[in-house]
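Researcher: We're teaching a course module on how sequence relates to structure. For the next exercise, students receive a sequence and then see the predicted structure as tokens, so they can try to spot secondary structure elements on their own. Here is the exercise chain.
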Amino acid sequence: MTRSKILLLLFFIGVIFSACKKEYSIENANITTSNFTAVINGTRWAATTGDQGATLLQGMVNITGISADSQEISITLTDTLLGVHTLTPKSSSLAVYGFIDSSYTTNFSTSQGTDSTVAGGEVDLTEINTLTKTVSGTFSFKVYRSSDGAQRTVASGVFSNIPYTSTLPGSNPSDTVVASIDNSAFTSESIQASVQDNQLTILGSTSNGAQSIALVVPTNATVGSHALTATGAYTAIYDFLGSNGGNTAAPVYAGTVNILANNASTSKIRGNFSFTTRDAATGNTNHTISSGFFSVYYGK
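Model: And here is the predicted structure for the students to work with:
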């Protein structure tokens, strides 16, 4: 899988993770029943009733659940076709498992590892009910953590009639991501920030996900100017709804992010950015993002 695909998936998964952390209340959840269950390394896992949800957005499906002890399973499929979706370290669809309140910042996923013997499996999407707005299916897979070679086996997974939404979660009123995209003003309606592997992802989107700008910087990003590149620690992607009805990821070709402030104690970061993207076929610049500004909170 290319870095741009991995980043794009992480951006959408980050949206769901962040929404779960900020909007769900484990203390108030009803844990007597669950429509989202599995067996992880031989131990039963069940999402609490208030901590299970799904999103169908721009041809992608995400199902996320959190157990009472803060174990999270999140599955992202890159199309909405019913039937079996195969997960491998090279597939665009993936599943992630981790502890949302753990000191570990690295999750297990099917996208890590070298082959399907260490990571991968299947998700059978059995129903998308557009009348009740629910999704159902089954799953089983192995997830891997490349940082220490640890593995988890997730078996007998079921999600049944999980309610879904087709809009992204709202933003903290104090957060801002704005820019000019090809000389047209862009103001984010949904802003999410998530930390993974000591990298901070900032995602600003329209509410329906038709346009988004994602910036990835180190969590300890220093004040000053940093080059944005497609494969560096400082990178960016412009994502938009294409003419084919699906989203297109346009990774940065060249650009700059200027960190104005990054306060670790308050988990607040501000900065300016600008970058261009390049058409892979022609080699010409096809999108220009300028006059960008962000100010976001990235704590839990």
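Model: If you want an answer key for the exercise: The first helix runs from residue 3 to 23. The CA atoms of residues 252 and 277 lie 5 Å apart.
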